[in-house]
Amino acid sequence: MTTVANVLRKREISLILFILFFLLIMLCVTPRFLQPSNLMNILLNISTVGILAMGQCAVIITKGIDLSVGANMGLVTLVVGSLLLHGLGTGLSVLVGVLTGIACGALNAVLISALRLPPIIVTLGTLSLFSGLMYMVTNGQWVQNLPSSFLALGNWKMLGIPGPVIVLLVVLAVLSVFMEKTLLGRHIYAIGNNMNAAKLAGLSPNRTIVMPYLVAGFLAGLSGILYLSYNGFSTPTTGADLNLESIAAAVIGGTNVFGGRGTALGAVLGAVLLGVITEALVFFHLPAVWNDAVEGLIILIAVIADSGLQRTRGIAG
Fold it and tell me: Is 288 exposed, middle or buried (0-12, 13-18, 19+ CB in 10 A)?
């Protein structure tokens, strides 16, 4: 019984069971919900936020936060789209897009690490900065009518699985190995768990926290390219709702807002849960505002659960 309880305490296992339970309910209510095409469409829809959530997870583990990640992604879509429309090749445009995402992440990292400014203040400022740049890049216009060579990047399939979903799974595998198996990944967890103890162990918190923001920036660039190549257009408001949605997915997936705990798998599962709920609301023709309300309720439950577990562990310790 104790073993079962310990297993269920793992957020990833609990999330998988909850998602399966929810799907079972939906199967009883409307069997069409579990059609393979609909389930694949859910994964396709959450691929962008899932990738962003993994970067957000790495940042939150260090007791940080990135409120600018959605704006970063949106900026990348407009930069890449503008370059393509001005005749730059697909390869170079994609490279510039990825570098743009990394540069935005690096700006956050420098301001937080070198100047030791609070992450929430820095990323709130860069959120406004990147959002403003989005309007400047295209003068407030949409980017569309992109070349087919670029659109192919987001519309390929392998064994019936859409390309963006495959990219999501590859990123999940790579980031999981990086965070859990490499020395730098363990240092990131150590900084989030106990910064003073990490300092005594010879770690440099200011240097260590640079990497998560670079990872978040790179993944924002990658997400922007996938989003633009799949949808074929972007607007100056693209990504505006993904800043908080990526945080929601990470927190729901078990990333501790107090730092030190979280996994890439949990972040993706959090995104899947949000995607399943959103699709269910669409099936029942409920207003979109219900999605925000349910999402907010789940976040509150996740944070309260994390806080309770932390107090329990403190008492047990």
Answer: exposed
- Which among 53, 126, 80 is positioned nearest to 228, based on CA atoms? 80
| pLDDT tens digits for range 57-95 | 999 999 999 999 999 999 999 999 999 999 999 999 999
- Torsion sign across C-alpha atoms 111, 112, 116, 122: positive
Task: Report phi then psi at 213, rounded to 5.
Answer: -70, -35
**Residue 41 class from Cβ within 10 Å (0-12 exposed, 13-18 middle, 19+ buried)?**
middle
**Mean pLDDT over the full length of the chain:** 88
In angstroms, the CA 57 to CA 257 distance is 9
What is the identity of the amino acid at 95?
Answer: L
Q: Is residue 161 classed as helix, strand or coil in its secondary structure?
A: strand
- Listed in sequence order, the residues at least 6 apart from 139 whose beta carbon sits closer than 8 Å to its beta carbon are none
Whole-angstrom Cα distance, residue 211 to residue 164? Answer: 24
What does the longest C-alpha to C-alpha distance in the chain come to? 64
Is pTM beyond 0.85? Reply is yes
Pairing mode, strands 161-162 and 157-158: antiparallel
Residue 11: its H or E element = helix 11-29
Q: Look at the alpha carbons of 211, 217, 218, 219 in this order and tell me if their dihedral is positive or negative.
A: positive
pLDDT of residue 290: 74
| 3-state class (DSSP) for residue 169 | helix
Q: What is the pLDDT of residues 81-90, one digit of tens each?
A: 999 999 999 9
Name the residue among 251, 227, 229 with its Cα closest to residue 237. Answer: 227
Cβ pair 64, 119 in contact under 8 A: yes
| Two tokens, residue 22 | 């929810």
The alpha carbon of residue 4 and the mean position of all alpha carbons in its chain are separated, in whole angstroms, by 30
| Helix count and strand count (H, E) for the chain | 15, 2
pLDDT tier at 4 (50, 70, 90 boundaries)? Answer: very low
